[in-house]
Amino acid sequence: MLQEDHIDIYVIHQDRIWREAVIKSLGRFRDIRIVGESDQNQQHNLPAQLASSKPDVVLLDLDLPSRTGLIHARRLLQCNPPSRVLMTGIPNDDEEVIAAIEAGAAGYLTCESSFDELTSNIRALASGRTLCSQRIARLLFTRVAKSAQASKARRRRPAADDIHLTPRELQIMTLIEEGLSNKGIARRLSIELQTVKNHVHHILVKLSLRRRTEVAHYVRQHGLSYQSTGTQLPVS
Q1: What local confidence, expressed as pLDDT, does residue 1 receive?
Q2: Which of 33, 97, 148, 231 is the most buried (most CB within 10 A)?
């Protein structure tokens, strides 16, 4: 919410010359007011400073290569009242942009962004809007769809305690997690390749999985180990 028809801005950037330049440039606009500034080493005082200044928008630098800006963005979400974070200095890379958004940034500016884009984003965030490129918007929609599908799959998947794996299946799962191919598993266990394929098929069906990579993830996620069964493994 705008305070007294001003957009109150708090600037956080590691470089003093950058802060001073941006503050001086933004000071030319009647609708923008700087209410505070700090570098990222003053993080212990930041919550109190934001609580007293109550900025509408916080300009926060990613601070490459340490990327401490992502940590600060998460902390800013916990401030009361929360401010909208406009993260600057983002590499022009889809994954970096998504990381900033996931950390809590309401907007972002890449390293190639202009000063006009800075002011446009500030005004957009202050009015409750977010400026986002079509490419990033499509990527976000794709991420949400994939996340929803994965969530449904997890709900359909039976709990680990309800799955009855044979010692041989558990052994093959751990070998898959080690990175062995079906042929490699067959050689390691001295069994037929088709026997390995049959076991892998049964494992996928029991766990409601589709790919070997998901089996490897399942082993790591649940800390499975066939030795823990204490059962003598069958020969075939």
Answers
A1: 44
A2: 97
